[in-house]
From TrEMBL:
It comes from the Eukaryota. The keyword Transmembrane applies. Keywords: Golgi apparatus, Membrane, Signal, Transmembrane, Transmembrane helix. Its main location: Golgi. It is a single-pass type I membrane protein. One of its GO terms (cellular component) is Golgi membrane. The chain crosses the membrane at residues 6-24, 44-72. The keyword Cell membrane does not apply. This is Protein kish. Involved in the early part of the secretory pathway.
Length: 74
């Protein structure tokens, strides 16, 4: 189990958030509902989706390395 209050727990939580928002950007109904705002509190979802789509190679490598770290080293 990963503790949310540890550094690796925060990294996993951030990666899951970015990956989820990037996936939701591909769904048309959710894209117009959740990711339409670009400012404010709801803008965080939009910004995470942009990070997930533009840096998808870096996010995928980070997810893979974090998974290997959690499975084999922790």
């Amino acid at each position: 189990m990963t503790n949310v209050y540890s550094f690796d727990g925060i990294v996993v939580l951030g990666l899951l958030f970015v990956c989820t928002c990037a996936y939701l950007k591909k769904v048309p109904r959710l894209n117009s509902w959740l990711l339409s705002e670009k400012k404010g509190v709801w803008g965080v979802f939009y910004k995470a989706a942009v990070i997930g789509t533009r840096l998808h190679h870096a996010v995928a490598i980070t997810c893979l390395s974090m998974a290997l770290y959690l499975v084999f080293l922790k």
